């Protein structure tokens, strides 16, 4: 996999090389005092345990509670102790964490931990703070060091994921920061508290913090599980629809997939991409309220039947509005059949008055409809569908969105590239 991606391979080698130099320098410049080995072992075991309990993130990657352990270690110990602790946490894994992390990933993780922690410790050194002397008055500096670690961690990983997926590292960085900040806000103060308790009570004092540390991990896991359950609810609604209309089986998931790619091509923020994903999956959910006879009719629809079809975006909005976690997704669903020239339905709005999310879904929906076989016609080829999209750009569809979609298709038709590598640590 590494050989297939020269850009990432070069970046990987550079990060590992830099981390190795930093680690060697820190070991040579640190005088190990009596008792320091036992302290190292305590924190190394705690770090390994933390890394073996990852929480998977929706966008790939994971977070762990080891951020708190790293913050405490940075406050307490010299550089030559901190960096080996982080190295152990990345390289020594057990259970599912070990299965999900091949050796090269562990080396990359260890390297980015080393670089990130070295930068965090540098903040403390520059502030003149002494090892193993924790003072609550220095809390702002401790938090600044923790923030430096998080920022470095997210940046290094985002660049790696950008090179692997050939996407903008900046876009990935913004998405990763969104997930990292809540984890940071919960764990950085806990790390400071861990250092204070360790100074006063020693290793036994860390047992007192094992419960809040596990609770922090459990709380984040519950949040991720809640989001997963939301998506399962959405999927169940779509499956109920597709059970009625055999010709549209898989249509909603394909529209969602195309819509996501299109939104990313247009450099929309992650929260709007997430919004569009839900809207794409649910864009036709209102057809639940339309008779199967009408949905599967092979001949031309009469005026009354067409009226029922034209009402499905409104039905869809009404269904979605009753689900609290979907927020304003219903508005995007309501307007996805509006035309750019104002001749669409149900409200006849036009141009930029149509929500951008709806205009994106309209293009994805139209393309998938044309490239899928229906009861009343055969499917078109991708090139034929693209030609038709360009023909109706400016009348039926937003021309800017159509051109962005053409770029998406062009990229899809290029030589197949290696699959993106996921499960990198986003923030720890």
UniProtKB/TrEMBL annotation:
Name used for this protein in its record: Metal dependent phosphohydrolase
Domain HD-GYP: 226-421
InterPro entries xref list: HD/PDEase_dom, HD_GYP_dom, MASE9
GO molecular function, one term: hydrolase activity
Keyword Hydrolase: yes
UniProt key word Membrane: yes
Transmembrane annotation, as ranges: 12-28, 40-57, 69-95, 107-129, 141-161, 181-199
High-level lineage: Bacteria, Bacillati, Bacillota, Clostridia, Eubacteriales
Keywords: Hydrolase, Membrane, Transmembrane, Transmembrane helix
Gene3D superfamilies, sorted: Hypothetical protein af1432
Alphabetized SUPFAM superfamilies for the sequence: HD-domain/PDEase-like (SSF109604)
